[in-house]
Amino acid sequence: MSVSHPSVQRVLTGITPSGTPHLGNYAGAIRPAIAASRQPGVESFYFLADYHALIKTTDPARVQRSTLEISASWLAAGLDTERVWFYRQSDIPEIPELTWLLACVAGKGLLNRAHAYKAAVDKNVAAEEDPDAGVNMGLFMYPVLMAADILMFKSHKVPVGRDQIQHIEMARDMAASFNHLYGEHFVLPEAEVDASVATLPGLDGRKMSKSYDNTIPLFAPAAELKRLIFSIVTDSKAPGEPKEAEGSALFQLYQAFATAEETRAMRTAFEEGIAWGEAKQALFERIDAAVAPMRVKYEALIAEPHVIERHLQEGAEKARAIATPFMAELRHAVGLRNLAAAFAVKAADKPKAALPQFKQYREADGRFYFKFVDGDGRLLVQGAGFDSPRDAGRCVAALKQGAAFHVEGDGMHVDGARIGDLADGVHADDVRRALAALAA
Ligand code: TRP
């Protein structure tokens, strides 16, 4: 099966193009992602989630403009497109195709619990509206599309904000269901929330976010950057009065762009009562120094959209080199097959099907189970529920490696622990024979 080499970590994340990139996006996502993409042993996939943008906005010009600005920002910030996979979701037709296959294994009940959808319903209910008023199917299906983004490239790690963790868990869930039904095709992804990554405050001191309208655009012209920095809300402490660095939006912004040494000096300046105007000037100069060289590249790119387009087209080609054959494998797995090849396919399937196999999966009770079935798919052993996939996996590995077991009644025991039950009419010797066949 085409699972990527285990020593290479695949990292993937999507950026929804529905606005203009701001300093918070840079410090919280763009900068750490580009740094991570330079690590050895990592394959990075960064893409513009423009299908996702359609859920939030119906303004075509905004989608196009934002796609342009975000692409230009990542390139200007130093993303190396030779090294990473940088593409636009809507250039990969296999993604919506996979979305459908996953929709057919995703429980509707699971999607009912997705935060974004639930928040919309709760708001409607509170307003005594119809629960689904104004909710489109895009919002409801959002986690399925996102699962397709992730599973298509067999990503191990998905760096996201806390609000997205649930979506990664849903992707795992869909992957496990699909694997259970059709064989081990998908890698189960994990969310990666990096607590050391800066969350920047905005102009009003709350988290910088376009939904609070308190952002500083990453590539605002210098004069605009200065004007915005001088509009950051501060308290009324006079020049000379000691100021608290902790909790100051100005200080946090400074820290996100300064070295440890510069930060220490600024902390001292705060204690010594630096005037707010002076601190703002220092902040402007620090950010401008960091951003100015990138701003030049950004402006050049924005003026030449065909260059950006070419990067995206090349990225799409690179991504489809993975997605197209994988989608063919998945289509075959679910039975969407070329009929003319039916006989050849059957012959190829046979030896695989004739072997007994272990299947691991998660049940609605949240526990992790395994099954052992013979080559005809007959259940031999129904494993007990384990707390973690690792515990279940360890038990399966022990059996595969020939661990001794004994049977009492229907219960199967290894090292004194009950690990499962023999299925009706199955004898311990049937299990031993099947294990031996598998080992051979
Ligand atoms: N939903 C993500 C967000 O709004 C963007 C996204 C789309 C994404 N597909 C993804 C993130 C896949 C990680 C992996 O932030």
Describe this structure in words.
This protein has 440 residues and is α/β, with parallel strands linked by helices. The chain folds into three domains: 217 residues, 3-Layer(aba) Sandwich (Rossmann fold); 77 residues, Tyrosyl-Transfer RNA Synthetase (Orthogonal Bundle), CATH 1.10.240; 83 residues, PH-domain like (Roll), CATH 2.30.29. 51% of the residues lie in helices and 12% in strands. The chain has 16 helices and eleven strands. Strands 6-7-8-11-10-9 form a six-stranded antiparallel sheet. Strands 1-2-3 form a three-stranded parallel sheet. A hairpin with a 5-residue loop joins strand 7 and strand 8. Helix 3 packs across helix 12, helix 4 packs parallel to helix 13 and helix 7 crosses helix 8. The longest helix is centred in the last third of the chain and has 30 residues. The two termini are 19 Å apart. It binds tryptophan (TRP). The site of tryptophan has 12 residues, from strand 1 and helix 7.
Tally of separate domains: 3
Largest β-sheet summary? 6 strands, antiparallel
CATH homology superfamily of the largest domain: HUPs
CATH fold-level topology of the largest domain: Rossmann fold
Helix segment tally = 16
Tell me the β content: 5-15%
Average pLDDT level: 92
Low-confidence stretches: none
Overall shape: elongated
Question: What is the CA–CA distance across the termini?
Answer: 19 Å
Name of the top-level CATH class of the largest domain: Alpha Beta
Cα-based radius of gyration, to the nearest Å? 27 Å
